[in-house]
Amino acid sequence: MADKDQAHLEARVAEKGINAMSSNEFLSETEALEERANWPAMMKGLRGRCPSCGETALFTKGLKVQDQCSVCDEEFHHHRADDLPAYLNIFVVGHVVVALIMIALKWDIVSMWTGMFITIAIAILVSVLMMRPLKGMVVGAQWAMRMHGFGGNED
Ligand SMILES: [Zn+2]
Fold first, then answer.
1. How many CB atoms lie within 10 A of CB 75?
2. Nearest 5 degrees, angle CA 36-CA 37-CA 40?
3. Reported pTM
4. Can you tell me the distance from the alpha carbon of 139 to that of 55, in angstroms, rounded to the nearest whole number?
5. Which residues are near ligand 1, the ion (C-beta closer than 5 Å)?
6. Residue 134 Cα, ligand 1 centroid: separation in angstroms?
């Protein structure tokens, strides 16, 4: 009976030992991943450059992010920018445009109709111009924070 308990205990210790070793290996593996600075990566993405090296263009065509950087081989197909860039765009444009039209109308700078057309034109122009930088910034942030497969593990 005691031998059986001893064997069971040894088996559990061995099992725990293996578990502890594998979790330590995992920890050292994740600690070995170098820290990525958030702001520089986001600024490179904002400029439409590779968040890692900044040497190549992040986008291939329109808002399509390239799968891999041709200079540093960093993979970008992991990104999940989804609708965050569009949300940020609406947030920024909405506040800028709403503020501008309210100032313009309050101070009688423009008539209601002129103000409306200027507002629509500014809203379209600014939102189109901001789409790429905002998406690049989001991809840069995800890369720096090792989100969605950027950390080496699949999402
Ligand atoms: Zn690169």
1. 14
2. 125
3. 0.69
4. 16
5. 50, 52-53, 69, 71-72, 74
6. 18
70: which 2 tokens?
A: 């041709």
Provide the token pair at 39.
């702001």
User: Rounded distance, CA 39 to CA 140, Å?
Assistant: 9
What spacing in Å lies between the alpha carbon of 58 and ligand 1's midpoint?
A: 8
* Cα angle for residues 84, 59, 43 (degrees, 5° grid): 65
Please say if the pLDDT value at position 18 is more than 80: no
Which tens digits make up the pLDDT trace of 97-106?
Answer: 888 888 888 8
Tell me how far the alpha carbon of residue 147 lies from the centroid of ligand 1, in angstroms.
17
